[in-house]
Specification:
By secondary structure, the chain is mainly beta. It contains one helix and six strands, in the order βαβββββ. The strands form three sheets. Strands 1-2 form a two-stranded antiparallel ribbon. Strands 3-6 form a two-stranded antiparallel ribbon. A two-stranded antiparallel ribbon has the order 4-5.
């Protein structure tokens, strides 16, 4: 099962100050959900669409402890390249 993780402004501020990579450690205030790429929906069988409003938020798609995208706003689609379950944070 995949998870989706968002970290709000503190991580974004660190990214802009040049302290990359920004840590993606989980905190009790983080938004986490479960994803499976081949469920019916608006994205392809190898991707997920996160229908968030607002932002900014940061995402660690490959769960390596560093954010892959920062400062995202609104919905975002990410393609993993293969059908399956993933654990991004």
């Amino acid at each position: 099962m995949a998870s989706f993780f968002c970290a709000w402004p503190a991580a974004l501020i660190s990214a802009f100050l040049g302290t990359a990579p920004v840590s993606a450690a989980l905190s009790p205030d983080d938004f986490v959900t479960t994803w499976k790429t081949d469920n019916p929906g608006t994205s392809t069988s190898t991707s997920i669409t996160v229908p968030l409003g607002g932002g900014p938020y940061d995402v660690d798609w490959d769960n390596d402890g560093a954010y892959d995208e920062t400062g995202l706003n609104g919905p975002v689609t990410h393609d993993f390249g293969a059908t399956g379950t993933y654990d991004p944070h």
